[in-house]
Give the backbone structure.
Amino acid sequence: MNLLLDTIARYVTLTPEEQERVVSATEFQSYKAKSILLKEGEICLHSYFVIKGILRSYTIDENGVEHVVSFASPGWWIADMYSYLSQRPGQLYIETNEDSEVIMLSKENQERLYDEVPKMERFFRILIENSLVANQQRLIDNLSFTAEARYDKFTKKHPDLIHCLPQKQIASYIGVTPEFFSKMKARLLKK
């Protein structure tokens, strides 16, 4: 819980009583590697705050190809935001890449926190704004940058993930096939 409270403290200051309300609204859960927390077509009932491990969200196209949407490492949140906010069936899978520990927050408890601890509404607004900016930048990067430039940005933004993730997942995240990614990395190593 300390990581969660420390993360919240970067944006808002909670009293000890408010911290207790936040903690009581969440649920701790451990998962083994390759556990699927959410499947396409299900309603996303929780957002997940990562304490340990790496989670990823992805879609699977009609050809069975996975497309990684996001990764979440310790200190990050992950959810199918469309489904979580609308409480309708979503399009994403959320899976653990390795043994993981998460703190789960239901939509109902999040809404209750907004009433009981109004600072949490500000906290989540800031997170959503930051996420919106990051997603917009990723879209622009995917439209404007070469695969090598996208990979370079990924390595600089997430140096902690480079050695923890399978190469095919990184390739998917930057929008290239695993074969292209291998050739691109070989070229980069020769430089």
Summary: Strands lie at 26-31, 36-38, 46-52, 55-60, 66-72, 77-78, 93-96, 100-106. Residues 118-144 form the longest helix (27 residues).
